[in-house]
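lol forgot to send this yesterday, sorry. struct tokens for the thing we talked abt
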């Protein structure tokens, strides 16, 4: 039986959550505490005796909050980390409250039906072919694992090899072709699936990171084996898109499998203004994307889609006599499509985000982020000694200071320390750069302006005012 104390604890925590979120506007974006300070505050011997739940939560907040990065802030531009809209956070609370096991319909029919509904909505939003199957996973990397497991099964079945029975050892060799600037999770997914780095062939990419269709065609000319090609919609550094139509032409001629990494870039399809960037994407065999990036649902939430449901299911499905598994024609059993067995009901926050924003709101979210990215690029690029390295086609901006690696790294470090905004560094085709990703529903023009001032102040200090001036 739950008592009043339990209810009080949940109310206290919800109250704290609301206060934390409303403090985002002003709190420093970087976490103020050092790792040492956090260890001191959080570590201790394994507790022998119980501690009251209220005390545990109050002390956890006090000890951990100084080590929390304000990723929900409109001035958080790190990696490609979306914020969480209140509606999707609320649905996430319901997810934990209901605590359904979303592996099976029997573990929670609403969780299963919500995923079915989300799948249909996502097909429309992301411009995917009707009838694709989907797995709701932790993130884009596991979406790659899921989709590429389906690909591996499919291309081997096409040459008469039953992967589920025969495994990889002794199987016909599969050729894997990826763009030179693919995201590292593609390699990692292949590693999990039994492919080493020696078996991954990189196809040349241009200065924006776009795979060359001519180089791909050339590489495919000698393809005499089952082949998987991975293209990308949205480079993690530049935001650029591979020319997917031309890539699909080359892949189709060879009967290879085309996978698209669209972790955030696939969401361009939701905007009439940016949809052209994903032209050709609908011709792929599989896609991987995230909801925790541009849809702004809380971590963790990625989605794998597959044009070949039979291969997808064959790669994932399991049966056991104790599981009450529904007739596949009657209901979508989630563990037929996911690598996990038991798992969180990730559909609820996605459902809430899509319902709350609607098609128009999602287009506006994408477009707003892209506009803010362009404004950042314009304001920074206008300063002396500051160079924007990429064509800002989407929500990613690469900036270099004083045309110098050390100065650029120093600016990034100073901005992180300052706390007005947060962003990280990278190396783009041999040159250090600051990378800025605008993926948060809240980022306003004012956030951009405040951040630009902080960045240019850091730049002026880092290069002693010599070559960088607003
Ligand atoms: C293009 C691309 N692919 C894959 C990933 C990995 O996504 P996740 O961290 O959700 O696994 C990212 C992350 O930023 C990405 O930008």
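and heres what i got for the seq, position by position
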């Amino acid at each position: 039986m739950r008592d009043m104390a339990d209810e009080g604890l949940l109310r206290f925590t919800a109250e704290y959550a609301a206060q934390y979120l409303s403090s985002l506007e002003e709190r420093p974006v970087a976490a103020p505490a050092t790792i040492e300070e956090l260890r001191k505050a959080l570590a201790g011997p394994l507790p022998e005796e119980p501690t009251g739940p209220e005390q545990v939560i109050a002390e956890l907040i006090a000890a951990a909050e100084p080590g929390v990065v304000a990723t929900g802030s409109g001035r958080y531009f790190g990696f490609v980390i979306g914020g969480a809209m209140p509606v999707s956070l609320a649905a996430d609370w319901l997810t934990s409250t209901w605590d359904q096991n979303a592996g099976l319909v029997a573990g929670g029919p609403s969780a299963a039906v919500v995923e079915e509904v989300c799948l249909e909505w996502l097909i429309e939003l992301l411009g995917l072919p009707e009838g694709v199957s989907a797995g709701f996973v932790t993130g884009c990397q596991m979406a790659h694992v899921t989709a590429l497991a389906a690909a591996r099964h499919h291309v081997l079945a096409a040459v008469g090899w039953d992967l589920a029975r025969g495994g990889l050892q002794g199987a016909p060799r599969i050729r894997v072709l990826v763009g030179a600037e693919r995201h590292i999770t593609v390699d990692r997914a292949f590693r999990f699936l039994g492919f080493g780095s020696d078996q991954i062939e990189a196809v040349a990419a241009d200065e924006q990171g776009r795979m060359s269709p001519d180089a791909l065609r050339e590489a495919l000319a000698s393809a005499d084996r089952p082949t998987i090609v991975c293209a990308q919609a949205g480079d993690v550094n530049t935001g650029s898109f591979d020319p997917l139509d031309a890539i699909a032409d080359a892949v189709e001629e060879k009967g290879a499998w085309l996978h698209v990494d669209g972790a955030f870039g696939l969401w361009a399809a939701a905007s009439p203004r940016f949809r052209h960037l994903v032209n050709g994407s609908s011709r792929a065999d599989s896609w991987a994307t995230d909801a925790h990036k541009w849809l702004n649902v809380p971590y963790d939430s990625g989605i794998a889609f597959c044009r070949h449901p039979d291969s997808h299911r064959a790669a994932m499905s399991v049966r056991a006599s104790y599981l009450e598994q529904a007739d596949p024609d009657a209901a979508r059993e989630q563990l037929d499509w996911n690598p996990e067995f038991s798992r969180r009901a990730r559909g609820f926050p996605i459902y809430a985000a899509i319902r709350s924003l609607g098609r128009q709101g999602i287009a506006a979210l994408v477009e707003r982020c892209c506009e803010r990215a362009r404004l950042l690029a314009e304001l920074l690029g206008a300063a002396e000694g500051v160079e924007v390295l990429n064509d800002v086609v989407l929500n990613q901006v690469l900036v270099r200071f004083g045309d110098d690696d050390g100065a650029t790294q120093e600016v990034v470090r100073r901005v992180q320390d300052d706390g007005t905004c947060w962003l990280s560094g990278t190396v783009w085709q041999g040159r250090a750069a600051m990378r800025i990703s605008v993926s948060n529903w809240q980022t306003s023009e004012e956030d951009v302006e405040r951040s630009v001032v902080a960045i240019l102040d850091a730049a002026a200090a880092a290069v002693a005012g010599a070559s960088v001036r607003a």
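The chain has 14 helices and eleven strands. anyway ping me if u want another try
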